[in-house]
TrEMBL record:
Gene name tied to this protein: RKM5
GO molecular function: S-adenosylmethionine-dependent methyltransferase activity
Protein name, per record: Ribosomal protein lysine methyltransferase
Keywords: Methyltransferase, Ribonucleoprotein, Ribosomal protein, Transferase
Superkingdom of origin: Eukaryota
A GO biological process held by the record: methylation
SUPFAM superfamilies assigned to the protein according to its UniProt record, in alphabetical order: S-adenosyl-L-methionine-dependent methyltransferases (SSF53335)
GO cellular component: cytosol; protein-containing complex; ribosome
Length: 291
């Protein structure tokens, strides 16, 4: 942990300075919403030498469902974030912050399952979460894209077979309504997780407070364990990848996030090309502040 924190260089101390840096100093913002192809029923992807066929739900995306529908499509930010997670030199793994025994939890997974699918070979358990409406397609995409689920016939068609074993759990978690301690307890996560992954979850003022509070409550589970049981256990690390769209939304999120967590921006030397400055994306790391 100390090795990684030292490599991250400067901790973010000023919300205004960080907002100016990521949006204006590096001309990184974009007006593109960031969906790969919202009208397609299926999209074909290739990440780190693996091929994926991801089903989308254009009908749900275009509906007026209360609670939002953004999770019904594949977002580019998740693809570049997944590429970074798969990178052999990813600092989370090279520093042993994450290992083959680690447990990660993704908030706002959406329907694609790309981030859990990429993370699963490198860690012990992946928990992919979202609102109930997204879970059926999320589970289907994960099941259909596990390595052993995609054998090819001589003509190149994918054969159907029983789902192989997986270390990915797909679970309902709503930032606004879920009881986070109860959720963790019932899912065997009473002692917390090693990492919380968030990819393009920050786009709406109304969701900032519940998202940050959810992160804090998950991190507190591990913090409580450190205090009561195992002082040597590593704290939960939060990883936030996002497309840079609206400075005001970013600024409000960062202010709320920094109130409870220490924050670092991941520098270019620790990122793959798709996430470096000028790409339109940024990755931050958060650690719960000491009481």
């Amino acid at each position: 942990m100390d090795e990684l924190m030292a490599a991250l260089v400067d901790e973010v101390e000023d919300v205004d300075e960080e907002t100016f840096h990521v949006f204006f100093q590096n001309h990184s913002s974009t007006q593109d919403l960031g969906m790969l192809d919202p009208r397609a029923e299926e999209v074909e992807l290739a990440i780190n030498g693996r091929d994926f066929t991801i089903k989308q739900s254009p009908g749900v995306l275009q509906s007026k469902r209360e609670g939002g529908t953004t999770g019904a499509a594949v977002w580019r930010a998740c693809l570049v974030f997944a590429e970074w997670l798969a990178w052999a030199k990813n600092p989370l793994f090279s520093s042993d912050l994450l290992t083959s025994e680690s447990v990660t939890l993704e908030l706002g997974s959406g329907i694609s399952g790309v981030v859990p699918l990429i993370a699963s070979p490198r860690v012990g358990r992946v928990v992919a979460t979202d609102q109930q409406y997204a879970l059926k397609l999320l589970q289907e995409n994960i099941t259909n894209n596990l390595p052993a689920a995609r054998p090819k016939s001589p003509k190149g068609h994918t054969k159907q077979q029983h789902a192989p074993p997986s270390n990915i759990d797909v679970l309902a978690l709503d930032w606004e309504t879920s009881d986070i301690p109860a959720f963790l307890s019932t899912q065997g996560l009473r002692d917390g997780v090693d990492a919380v992954l968030m990819c393009d979850c920050i786009y709406n003022y109304a969701l900032i407070k519940p998202l940050v509070q959810t992160c804090v409550e998950i991190c507190r589970a591990r913090s409580t364990r450190q205090s009561n049981i195992d002082e040597k256990s590593k704290p939960t690390i939060c990883l936030i990848a996002q497309q840079l769209r609206q400075p005001d939304v970013f600024e409000q999120w960062l202010q709320a996030f920094m109130a409870s967590l220490r924050v670092w921006r991941v520098p270019d030397g620790m990122l793959t090309n798709g996430l470096k400055e000028g790409s339109g994306y940024v990755v931050h790391v958060g650690l719960l502040r000491d009481k």
